[in-house]
Amino acid sequence: MAKHIGIVACSAEGAALCYRTLCAEAPLKMGEHMHPEVSMHTHPLGEYMIHIRSGNWPEVAKLMLSSARKLASIGADFAVCPDNTIHQAFDMVTAESPIPWLHIADAVAREAKDSGFGNLAITGTKYLMTGPVYPEMIKQHGISYQIPDKGDREKIDTIIFKELVNGVFIEKSRQYFNLVFQKLKERGCDAAVLGCTEIPLLVDPDDCPLPTLDSTRLLARAALNKALEKG
Q1: What is the pTM of this model?
Q2: Exposed site from 30, 213, 216, 217, fewest CB < 10 Å?
Q3: Domain that holds residue 177
Q4: What CATH number did the domain enclosing 174 receive?
Q5: What are the φ/ψ torsions at residue 145 (nearest 5 degrees)?
Q6: Contact 65, 81 (CB under 8 A)
Q7: Element holding 86 (H helix, E strand)
């Protein structure tokens, strides 16, 4: 039997995309209409944001652990979190979690390495772009990275929190992301990390100046592979 996947959600659009990806791609491995058992729990994004804005990562970890414990209590075998930013609390969470976790940036870094990319353009919330989540993970794979300049970071953060997490996807914003990726391409980046789980709903890989690494779908695929592991 496939393992029971627990989704520790934070923002709705990214979590929904992760869930939909799991359910849409599993039949190719498991048969028609089949997918692993999946359960999800989320505290409101607003509760997370209180602590994210103040840099209180232990309190972020408490919310994530609360979700993990509830998922474990209903049989989840492991957890994933389709939110890049709150992975800054990952080590605090896994130290006390009743179930193991997969790390979203590890899924991205592995795909980058397998694809031969060596210099990643990291986009996401301002907390993610200037934080340790991706630098600490990708250096383990011998990959370098760059982030947008301060003005672009602020604009991207505004698009995420004013538009994307609310299910608003505007063509002007998509074009803005492409301009940012073009700048980073000119600085030597060879792939773009879509490091907010809602960005893949906006950016079109076929139109992007750089190859894209879709953190949401890569995490979902890693979870599916984990669920189907024997033993």
Answers
A1: 0.97
A2: 30
A3: 104-214
A4: 3.40.50.1860
A5: -155, 165
A6: no
A7: none
